[in-house]
Amino acid sequence: MPLDEFEFSVLKTIQTHHLIFPGHKVLVALSGGMDSMSLLNILLKLRQKLNCEIFAAHLNHMIRENAIRDEQFVYSYCKKAGVKIFVERFDVPKFCADRKIGIEEGARAARYTFLNRIAHENGIDLIALAHNLNDLVETILYRIVRGTGLSGIVCMKLKDENKIRPLLYFKREQIEAYIKRNNIPYVQDETNFNLKYSRNYIRHRIVPALKLLNSDLENAFSQVHFSGMMLENHVKRLIKKYSERIFRCGKRIIFDSKDMDEFEIIELVKYCAGQMNVDLNYRQIQLVVSKLNENSWSIDLSEDIAIKKGFDFFSIEKKCKFMNILKVGKPGVYKFNDWTFELSSEVKSNEYVFIHDQGGVCIRKRKAGEKIAGVKMKDMMIDSKIPAFLRDEMPVVCTIDRIIWVPYVYVDRCFKERKEDSLVLNLLQNPYSCILELRKDERRKMV
Q: Can you quote the domain comment?
């Protein structure tokens, strides 16, 4: 059977944007509504041309009285069409009540969890979602009203990992015409008209009002979406460009912002925070922007995550408690927080100190206002380009009566040379070597 104009346009979208490849298994998220029923029928008609297998999945959210009707409808339709369908029920109202989240948010989370699990368990490559251009408009408006950045503008994509949206750039009226022209049955979700749900209010109140200003609202928003996608691609290239300046150090992600402009710094801050599962809000971003010209500072992003700056370095880190002191005695390996030392008879690293008498040697944190030979340790660390957020974690090696070594900062001249019975305290490993080595050539030698 030849393709009609709409089906051909969807095929071109799939081929142009490489959404489906030969041999792919595709799982259609099938609610039974107009959009998902049109998507299922189009993909069934295109499956030979695309050389792919089509499956369907339906989650009964147990929210509406007619949910059973919808479940039975999609099951019966797929059975007649020869399409394997996966159907499950999940008590979304209880799920939302237990977690104190909204119905819309909870239903979406449950649905995506279900779809991803079905795809994984059955070796299915792609999940096809029936979002259209009107959905894109409504979602962007919803995100803008709630406060969003770039991620809110590009909230829906034609392809996002294993999810595809072949109908994303088609208007709802085109889908309605296709359904009517082909006599495709569907079910109507009566909650789509309930204005207590934010998306419905936007659909039935806000969008019609905006169309009085621009009758071609959908295409206007598609241009905004396209611009957002271009900007997002630029940010991805930016992250790749500076990837060698981003370091994962223990419970931190640190990046070097030297010679970066404000836009680049903020995008890297957002990226690194995202790697720590933190989504920065507008207020937090503005706070970071306001402090960019300050040399050192700290901002709490959540109960257990903070962002800190020292010199050109930014650190997004988990808050944790650190060991205060560690005694060093017999030869062997010693762990002081994230630092690893070894007391042995040989020099094994570039950072080391000779120990002439093992008695009373310890590794500890610095003390407030502490001085070495009359010079504040803080000033020494500043001269040595140690970022402020690392200074309290720098190990200080002491004998009974004096500080003999602070790695990368200071070595007592009496402990630079080996004596007959000396042992060597080597710094074998520290998670910040990439940072501490980076500015080594800029350091003033401390003696």
A: The N-terminal region contains the highly conserved SGGXDS motif, predicted to be a P-loop motif involved in ATP binding.
**Pair 403, 412: CB distance under 8 Å:** yes
Tell me the CA distances in angstroms from 242 to 214, 268, 292, 312, one per residue in order: 41, 9, 18, 14
- pLDDT recorded at residue 309: 93
The CA distance from 371 to 82, in Å, is 80
Most confident of 83-97, 137-151, 247-261, 350-364: 83-97
Paired strand residues for 352: 426
Could you tell me if 107 and 61 are in contact, meaning their C-beta atoms sit under 8 angstroms apart? yes
Give Dmax (Cα) for the chain: 96
- Residues 315, 318, 322: CA angle, nearest 5 degrees: 100
- Please count the CA atoms within 13 angstroms of the CA of 445 that sit on its side-chain side: 2
Which structural domains are found in the chain, ordered by start? Answer: 5-214 (3.40.50.620), 242-318 (3.30.465), 325-442 (no CATH)
Q: Which two tokens stand for residue 154?
A: 């590009």
Q: Is 323 annotated as a binding residue?
A: no
Q: Given the structure tokens 């090696």, which residue do they identify?
A: 397
**Could you give the CA distance from residue 55 to residue 160 in angstroms, rounded to a whole number?**
19
- Residue 31 is assigned to a ligand binding site: yes
Q: How many residues does the chain have?
A: 447
- For 55, residues 6+ apart whose C-beta sits below 8 A from its C-beta are 25, 26, 27, 28, 83, 84, 85, 86, 122, 124
Asked if the model's pLDDT at residue 447 lies above 70, the reply is no
Cβ atoms of 32 and 41 closer than 8 Å: no
CA distances from 231 to 164, 236, 277 (A): 21, 9, 22
Residue of 269, 268, 278, 270 whose CA lies nearest to 301: 278
Task: Provide the edge-to-edge strand list for the sheet that holds 252-256.
Answer: 246-249, 252-256, 313-318, 305-310, 296-300
Average pLDDT over residues 228-243: 93
Instruction: Answer for the pair 298, 306: CB distance below 8 angstroms, yes or no.
Output: yes
215 is in an annotated binding site: no
Task: Determine the residue type at 338.
Answer: D
Is 149 annotated as ligand-binding?
no
What average pLDDT score do residues 344-368 get? 88
36 labelled ligand-binding = yes
Contact 33, 186 (CB under 8 A): yes
Question: What would the pLDDT profile of 330-340 be if each residue is shown by its tens digit?
Answer: 899 999 988 99
Out of 46-55, 146-155, 260-269, 356-365, least confident range: 146-155
The CA distance from 163 to 391, in Å, is 45
